[in-house]
Write a structure and sequence with these properties.
Blueprint: H1 4-15, E1 22-28, H2 47-54, E2 57-63, H3 69-78, H4 82-85, H5 112-116, E3 121-127, E4 146-149, E5 175-177, E6 180-183, H6 188-209, E7 212-218, H7 239-261, E8 268-274, H8 301-304, E9 305-311, E10 319-326, H9 330-337, H10 354-358, E11 368-372, E12 377-378, H11 379-382, H12 387-394, H13 398-407, E13 413-414, E14 417-422, E15 425-431, E16 440-449, H14 465-483, H15 508-511
Parallel strand pairs: 1-7, 1-8, 2-10, 3-4, 3-7
Antiparallel strand pairs: 2-9, 4-5, 5-6, 8-9, 11-14, 12-13, 14-15, 15-16
Length: 550
């Protein structure tokens, strides 16, 4: 006797994919291609994340929309590259929204939540948002009915796990419920479980109401500081990073169990990926790119090729796919499956991956993948502002800045488009590394066959016929792509203002003079952050932070 799952799979094969499933989009933070155990990591254990890969499609050539946090997330929720949606940074090196950012995702950008709501979907965002913390930029102003989470990276506010960190600006780390501070500072020991339980409660409420739903669950793990609860700290062979990824996986397990509990296991399309590659400057506190070169803050494969797993039980045939897809493909895919129409007044970069989900023989719709590092600009633009703002805004290190100043600032502009992949071939016009972050312009460009050479270790000779043939294709595609970019307000260029810090009580020091400002949950400071024994973790924090914890 056939199971319900097998009958549904046969129907999907004969009639195409079912329409209007529920959608669960899970994003990890700074997880590398080689971090899940399904990718071959020998000292991490991620059975729940692995199950999404083994019970669905494991895409081995899944690209992020950008090499760092905010721009990547902007690409996912809009289906548009950050260079189009005003979130590509202020210099050729890119950037992110700070905790006191003036701007956010432009208000004229359409999110997938905006569109899904027109088809009766109830939408919620849980976890890291990082597309603006002011009221008008938070998820509940951008199409989502609910929001629960830390609105930016967990190292952008003070907590027992991140005390005295320069980037924190001496504000306590907030946890938000919609547009209200739920807890400040939030207790990071409880955060992952709170995210998971909120997701479970959301599904329970959707079951009771009979709603179709879409849940965007952006975990705060595995960004530094690698926090964890007592049940996970000190339990893995991979140190604090391993403990953090173990806690992340447990949270994923809670959410997958809730799908079964409320009868959503076979009518929910799940996406799991990461915003960008591992933050290698954090050394052992950062993740692994596996066989790929480099990591976060670079346009090498390790910075932009991510874990990418898609599961739809009973509908998608489990398999491995080597087709090229991207995070911003999620947008047109779920819009199509919801039976809604795509925006017609903007240029979309995402492609509907439904054919790839339905058929193992389908081919990618991407002819080329365009990897922007930032916005086109001058070298001198990198050095504008105070030294601490330079480091925070560009991810430069002190020696990068010193070298640039001592060697003289070159004339001319640097393109923001650093690499382009067309077919199997990827050209680098400009590169950097996670530690030497200043741009290196390549003339002629460096070319790799990234299907033969995934580590980008063996450049193709620029004297060969293959080089000239492929570079002609790539340069033409790049020129046409750049011409298609229309002006958009650069939201990151609007800068920062302390007036836009999230603060439950600006006068909290009157009540708690020994605690950081914006403290309304003083008991959180009693938490004893696990340090992992006798390892000096101070060396794993960003070197430009003078007050790194010891």
């Amino acid at each position: 006797m056939r199971s319900a799952a097998s009958i549904l799979l046969m129907a999907a094969s004969a009639l195409g994919l079912p329409s209007q499933p529920n959608f669960l989009i899970m994003f990890a933070d700074d997880m590398g291609y080689g971090d899940p155990s399904v990718a071959g990591n020998p000292t991490t254990t991620t059975p729940n994340i692995d199950s999404i890969a083994t019970e669905g499609i494991r895409f081995t050539q899944w690209y992020s929309g950008f090499h760092i946090c905010s721009p990547s997330r902007a690409a996912m929720v809009t289906g548009r590259l950050p260079i189009r949606n005003g979130c590509a940074g202020t210099t050729p090196l890119g950037g992110v929204f700070r905790a006191d950012a003036v701007g956010g995702l432009p208000l004229n950008e359409t999110t997938f939540a905006d569109i899904l709501s027109t088809k009766g979907y109830y939408t919620a965002a849980v976890g890291k948002w990082h597309l603006g913390q002011r009221d008008e930029y938070l998820p509940t102003s951008r199409g989502f009915k609910e929001y629960f989470g830390v609105p930016y990276s967990v190292d952008m506010g003070e907590s027992p796990w991140s005390l005295g960190h320069d980037e924190a600006g001496h504000r306590s780390l907030p946890l938000m419920l919609n547009k209200t501070v739920f807890e400040q500072p939030t207790n990071l020991e409880k955060l992952t479980n709170r995210y998971a339980e909120y997701a479970r409660g959301f599904m329970q409420r959707m079951k009771s109401a009979g709603n179709k739903w879409a849940l965007y669950l952006a975990w705060s793990h595995v960004h530094i500081p690698n926090f964890c609860g007592p049940e996970h700290c000190g339990t893995t062979k991979r140190g604090r990073f391993g403990d953090a990824i173990s806690e992340l996986d447990a949270g994923v397990g809670v959410v997958l169990s809730a799908l079964k509990e409320y009868g959503y296991d076979e009518n929910t399309l799940i996406f799991f990926s990461s915003d960008n590659g591992p933050w290698l400057i954090q050394r052992l506190e950062g993740g692994s790119p596996g066989p790929l070169r480099e990591g976060k803050t670079t346009t090498w494969e390790g910075g932009v090729r991510e874990p990418g797993y898609v599961r739809w039980k009973g509908v998608i045939e489990p398999r491995i796919s080597t087709e090229v897809v991207a995070t911003y493909d999620i947008f047109p895919t779920i819009i199509a499956l919801a039976g809604a129409s795509l925006p017609t007044n903007v240029e979309l970069d995402g492609k509907d991956m439904s054919p790839l989900l339905e058929s193992a023989s389908a081919k990618s719709s991407h002819k080329c993948i365009y990897l922007w590092k930032g916005v086109t600009g001058s070298y001198s633009s990198i050095l504008e502002g105070a030294p601490d703002e330079i480091a925070a805004g560009t991810n430069l290190l002190p020696h990068d800045i010193d070298n640039l100043r001592s060697n003289g600032v070159p004339n001319g502009n640097i393109t923001g488009l650093w690499a382009v992949r067309c077919g199997a071939y990827k050209a680098h016009f400009v590169t950097n590394t996670h530690f030497e972050r200043m741009p290196v312009v390549h003339d002629p460009p460096v070319l790799y066959n990234v299907e033969y050479d995934i580590a980008e270790a063996f450049p193709i000779s620029n004297k060969s016929d293959v080089y000239h043939q492929q570079m002609a294709i790539i340069k033409k595609a790049a020129e046409e792509h750049v011409k298609s970019i229309k002006p958009q307000t650069n939201e990151m260029a609007r800068g920062t203002s302390a007036a836009f810090d999230i603060c439950c009580d600006p006068n909290s020091k009157e009540r708690y003079p020994t605690l950081p400002n914006c403290t309304c949950a003083p008991a959180t400071w009693d938490v004893q952050a696990y340090t992992g024994g006798d390892i000096d973790y101070s060396v794993f924090w960003d070197p430009y932070c003078s007050n790194s914890p010891k």
